[in-house]
Amino acid sequence: MTAQSPAQHAPGADAATTPWWRDAVVYQVYPRSFADADGDGMGDLPGITAHLPHLRDLGVDALWLSPFFTSPQRDGGYDVADYCDVDPRFGSLADADELIASAHAMGLKVIVDIVPNHSSSEHELFQQALAAGPGSPERDMYVFADGRGEHGELPPNNWTSIFHGEAWTRITEADGTPGQWYLHIFDTSQPDWNWQNPRVHALFRDVLRFWLDRGADGFRVDVAHGMVKPEGLPDAAVNAEGLLDIPEGEVPIYFDNDGVLEIYREWRPILDSYEGERMMVLEAWIPEHRLPLYIGPEEAHQSFNFGFLQATWGVETMRAAIEKPLALADAVGAPTTWVLSNHDVIRHATRYGFPPGYRFGEGLGRAETPDAALGLARARAATLLMLSLPGAAYLYQGEELGLPEVAEIPDALREDPAHLRAGVPGRDGCRVPLPWRADAPAYGFSPTGESWLPQPEEFGALAADAQEGVPGSTLEMYRAAIALRREHGLGRPDAPVEFLEDLPEGLLGLVRGEVVVLVNTSEQELPLPAGPDGLDLADAEVLVGSAEPVPGRLPADAAVWLRRR
Ligand code: GLC
Predict the structure, then answer these.
(1) 287 and 349 assigned to the same domain
(2) What Å distances lie between residue 408 and 163, 205, 454, 487, CA to CA?
């Protein structure tokens, strides 16, 4: 690991010199499902621009846009056919410019999703690779290999796809004969780039510059641990079968190879050469001890910490999910990040509606019945806990409305390639278009009432306009908490997290400056305990709570922020 620069090690830094990404609240927009301006039932960039005031009023610092580039949409846009253009379903480059300019005018930063592990099979360079023969420079842009077996009829190795099934597909050569195989860690429509080839490096340097020139403040790097494959493409001793079926503590052979780190060392100077604090956040599912290799002044700025998202409800589990990344943050010299939901996982308002330890599949099946009220109560409490912590917090669109995962999508309408390949419910349930207005067609998502996935009736009561100005609504709780987080500098890493010890069973407590955070994970209402230094917390000012306040007490499955007097 390289030495830490003083600029990246924060303690004592003041707000003026602290790079924005260190303590930002970032809001993930999934463009297909955010807001549809042209009425085709698919969200678009003008729809996002029109709803930027929602993000401004929520108080977030930045938005991260999931891919909106030219794409056949076989994996919701994570199958990119042209990295430097906008898919006509989402608008045009002019619409992207307008979105970035409007966001900047409101003081919001914009993070663009970059997908460097694979392209779409419709990418021009993949089409050229298919047309050119084996051994050609065109083919060398992707991972092609001869098959095993007498006639090359067996895949080059035993790797399986994260979306189930084999990770290789055999092509038919231009002369009509069965030919080589190409690697796709994800869907067949997502061929992996060959990062051993310097031309692939050059291509992505240009893509970064293209979006930096257009004003992007940073990148979320998709499958950030995936690009470089082990030399010789050996068989895997441990194989992945689906997103979740990776044995604990194991990393599939095609992930987390050291060559990936070189890519970040190549990209960092490009970002640093631009004005402002341009950043990269990695989607890297790697073991914790590997994180310090990825993050640093010469590598990436930050990485998603998925441990917090995976922690089950309870004092020990949640406390461990906070302490571990905080300890690692010191080791990497940059604050950690916090995430509870994104476009790949079951929404947290639904996850918490199952007992701790419940074994989730890929997506929510129709036969699974969470306790919705309990799930929402705990989700709101977990959100308050998350927003009190130092570092960057990443929100996923709709969580500020308390949206649940949607189970009742007809199979014929599901689009997740994992569903199509393996029949699992998949990730469509967290991607249902947002409800903006309770009384409008498609709940205000689209002017025509079209919606690429059907919205359930319960979305009506959760619509943004039904919650706006309503005390205690999830939307107002998020707004209040984000404003208080900024006012009290809770995201800043210089005030330590001090846990309160010897609390009644089921109570998690921590102190951040003058704010005391309490989470009641038990099933009973509990009296407020003594605070730090024996302070009587019953006398403290309630800044924000996830449940209806009860004087001197904390309801079950609830959290509260108190100000010490
Ligand atoms: C990432 C994305 C996910 C996508 C996959 C393949 O995990 O978050 O949505 O399917 O990469 O690009």
Answers:
(1) yes
(2) 21, 42, 9, 41
Of the three residues 415, 447, 478, the one that is the final residue of a domain is 478
Closest CA to 549 of 500, 477, 455, 499: 477
Q: What is the DSSP letter of 377?
A: H
Tokens of 427: 């990730």
Q: Give dist(CA 467, CA 490) in Å, integer.
A: 25
**What values do phi and psi take at 447, rounded to 5?**
-65, -20
Residues 428 and 282 in one domain: yes
Non-local CB neighbours of 499 within 8 Å, separated by 6+ positions:
319, 323, 508, 509, 510, 511
330 is annotated as an active-site residue: no
The answer to whether residues 233 and 376 belong to one domain is: yes
Number of compact structural domains in the chain? 3
- pLDDT value of residue 242: 62
Residue 175 designated active-site: no
Residue 78 Cα: closest atom of ligand 1: 12
Cβ neighbours, 10 Å, residue 319: 16
pLDDT at 10 > cutoff 70: no
Does residue 23 register a pLDDT over 70?
yes
Which of 79, 187, 217, 283 is an active site residue? 283
Output the pTM of the full model.
0.96
318 token code pair? 């949640």
Q: Whose CA is nearest to atom 3 of ligand 1?
A: 344
Which two structure tokens, joined as six digits, stand for 60?
């977030």
Could you tell me which residues are beta bridge partners of residue 118?
192
Distances (CA, A) of 109 to 102, 146, 156, 276, 563: 10, 46, 44, 11, 30
Kindly state whether residues 527 and 412 are assigned to the same domain.
Answer: no
Would you say residue 527 has pLDDT above 80? yes
- Assess whether pLDDT exceeds 50 at residue 196: yes
Average pLDDT in the 289-297 region? 93
Instruction: Tell me which residue range forms the domain holding 301.
Output: 20-117+197-478
In a domain, 28, yes or no: yes
Probe residue for ligand 1, chosen from 341, 344, 346, 427 as the CB with the greatest number of ligand atoms within 8 Å: 344
Query: What's the token pair of residue 51?
Result: 């709803």
Rounded to whole angstroms, how far apart are CA atoms 406 and 296? 39
Tell me whether residue 491 is in a domain: no
Q: What is the pLDDT of residues 41-86, one digit of tens each?
A: 999 999 999 999 999 999 999 999 999 999 999 999 999 999 999 9
Q: Please spell the DSSP secondary structure of 25-56, one letter per residue.
A: EEEEE-GGGT--SSSSSS--HHHHHHTHHHHH
CA distance 471 to 96: 35
What spacing in Å lies between the alpha carbon of 162 and ligand 1's midpoint? 10
| Cα(300)–Cα(281) distance, integer angstroms | 7
Q: What are the φ/ψ torsions at residue 454 (nearest 5 degrees)?
A: -70, 140
Question: Which ranges of 395-512 does DSSP label H, i.e. alpha helix?
Answer: 417-422, 459-462, 464-467, 474-487
Which backbone phi and psi does 203 adopt, to 5 degrees?
-60, -45
